[in-house]
Amino acid sequence: MNNKVKFRIPKVLSILIIVSGLFSFISDTGYENEIKEWRKQRIKELKSEQGYLNLAGLFWLEEGRNTFGSDGINKFIFPSDRSPANLGEFILENGEVTLIAKPEAEIYANNQLVTKLIIFPSDEEIVLKYKTLRWFVIKRGEKYAIRLKDLDSPYLKYFKGIESFPITEQWKVKAKFEPTVGRKISIMDVTGRLSEQESPGVLVFNIKGKEYRLDALSEGESFFILFGDKTNKNETYGGGRFVYTNKPDADGYVSLDFNKAYNPPCAFTPYATCPLPPKQNMLALTVTAGEKNYGHH
């Protein structure tokens, strides 16, 4: 005699399970999958050599000599476990930055060993290399700085991903583009530097019957928007978030998708110089979409 108990799923319940699974599959292969793929690419870029998780230092150059290395007597102190006591110096003179390396330092530029080289200005960004360290010159306003990266940075090593709000299409809105030819807006960064940047226009959209407006900046074939909202400092980064849109279609509309709102570099590292949302881009709205806060920067 067979004492095994056989469990049967009623036919009606079987149909419901199949239909439920089918609807789940359909939803996951449409818009949700688009956002999931976007998030995957976002993490890949963030972890790449060009990303921000490997930032290890930001050093503002002063006119004249700026020595660098792991020894505390240097102007710029590089990580002690990644650098010898002295690697050389940077010379800043009238907007030109020259590297003078110690002969034994073995610093490379484009895979060529260098001992003296003008690294700014240049037709293309010159990235200098010493073992796992990478550095190059950035200019902010009238100031020059050395941005240091470490491919073995703890920020990169211990990165566990970014928490995000649930994906929902209600935060993908249609916005009307209103051009503002020749208009400039004031943008301040986290270091307190103020710059005037040209804004091609304003994005106007509605959420639950209420109108909102965001000043846009132009970046290549896209609009770049710095915005803040009521989730900042609690669920999301206190310095606001970024989002890109397409350029206007033939009818003057863009797709503004807050599910693609993401943290600025300053949310991940203290060595970034992020722009902050202008006052007019602080939305009186709780945007529960896109990336949530990360870390404590």
TrEMBL record:
The chain crosses the membrane at residues 12-31. Keywords: Membrane, Transmembrane, Transmembrane helix. InterPro entries: DUF1684 (IPR012467). It comes from the Bacteria. PANTHER family: DUF1684 DOMAIN-CONTAINING PROTEIN. This is DUF1684 domain-containing protein.
